[in-house]
Design brief:
278 residues, alpha/beta, eight-stranded parallel β-sheet, two-stranded antiparallel sheet, globular
């Protein structure tokens, strides 16, 4: 299984997205962003994932716009904030995000969390933006299977991506199988479980065996499961380390060892708890 940093996942509408992206959650200090983004570009990252909620779209947009990497080589994702859902508000705040990111067209727009109140209205706005070619692809975050089944009752276009919390302690196997059947790409946020699984004994043993770090073992596991994943760091050495997962391959046996670590343990909220509150 030969893999490279340039590998892409093809979405169901034909658009391709880098499998290995860079997340910018909680990077709100301009000094940190000014270190992290150039380093990420230097080591080869071309996909960048932000959100209205992160309050850093403008910083990210400025750095990418002024970088030496051509726009055509970048893949940029943002998400509509929970408080900005609904048809009109989605369209209005999307324009703000586009301006902050200094773009004329976004690569991927995601619904950040499922909303009971604005469930179909928000998606109708997404379909309009997609039809008008303001976005190349549309998707959702944190949708369980039943949310997607509900969306399918009225949607003209189904999501190309579902970005969910996913890591060895929350493998989401049933949801992943459903998404594969529906041809919806799986994107993992918090692929390292916010660092909370880095001291797991099984992962530590694998790291020793492969002469890699536990973070690299985990990211390689995501890679070999054909998942899109977006690790985040502001430390240059770790940004480089997280990209250095292409010179080894986990055996099938070791992949299964990691699969068995599942505890259905979240670091974030359960979408079913958020859904009725939005």
């Amino acid at each position: 299984m030969k893999k490279t940093f340039e590998d892409q996942i093809t979405l169901h509408n034909g658009v391709t997205i880098p499998q290995h992206g860079f997340g910018v959650y909680k990077i709100t200090d301009p000094a940190e962003m000014e270190i992290a983004i150039p380093k990420a570009l230097e080591v080869g990252y071309r996909s960048f994932d932000t959100a209205q909620m992160y309050q850093n779209e403008a910083m990210l947009g400025e750095l990418l716009y002024n970088s030496s990497v051509p726009r055509k080589d970048l893949f940029i994702t943002t998400k509509i904030n929970n408080g900005n859902q609904g048809y009109d508000q989605t369209l209005f705040t999307f324009e703000e995000s586009l301006a902050d990111l200094q773009l004329s067209q976004l690569d991927l727009l995601l619904v950040h969390w499922p909303s009971e109140k604005y469930f179909f209205d928000t998606w109708r706005a997404f379909e309009r933006l997609y039809d008008e070619k303001m976005v190349r692809a549309i998707g959702v975050c944190n949708f369980h299977q039943h949310h997607l089944e509900k969306l399918n009752t009225k949607a003209n276009v189904m999501p190309m991506v579902n970005q969910v919390e996913l890591h060895p302690y929350l493998t989401q196997e049933a949801l992943r199988n459903y998404l594969k059947e529906q041809n919806i790409a799986v994107e993992a946020w918090s692929p390292l479980a916010r660092g909370r699984i880095l001291n797991d004994p099984v992962l530590e043993e694998l790291a020793r065996n492969y002469h890699k770090t536990t973070a690299q073992i985990i990211l390689r596991w995501h890679l070999q499961h054909e998942l899109i994943f977006i690790p985040k760091s502001v430390t240059p050495s770790r940004i480089a380390e997280n990209s250095d997962i292409y010179d080894f391959e986990l055996s099938a046996e070791d992949m299964k060892k990691i699969d068995k670590l599942n505890r259905n343990q979240r670091t974030g909220s359960d979408p079913d708890d958020v859904y009725p509150t939005i």
